[in-house]
Fold this sequence. Notes:
By secondary structure, the protein is α+β, with helices and mostly antiparallel strands. Helix content is about 20%, strand content about 35%. It has 3 helices and 8 strands.
Amino acid sequence: MPDTKIPFDEIRKYVPLIAVDGIIIKSGNILLIKRATEPFKDSWALPGGFVELGETLEQAVAREIEEETGLKTEALKLVGAYSDPKRDPRGHTISIAYLMKITGGTEKTTEEAKEVKYFLLAHLPENIAFDHKKIIEEAKKMKSR
């Protein structure tokens, strides 16, 4: 395979991209990040991002969470796949969401996440990015079983 990088904006014109989202629930609270970049800058979101070539979904979600929050995590359970072509204003993106367990690290802000904060599951912020409110609701149902 040639060692060339094609920008996401070019790839998006032809195929959906694959992303992952991590759901960390601890004592009735969920970890969200305040996005530092568009789309949805200054909105709250689940930590996550795009799968890189050669990664499993589980590796990608753990890497993204660590990059965005400083926390080391491990995938516990698949929550679901979210494929609405309009879920991401940048283009068709399919996201696979996982319930995650913290295994180490320390919470910190990053270039991508200007704030890292736990919210009560019963009192989520209004400005939640993408379709993450739907993903959170489905994860809550799984946690209550």
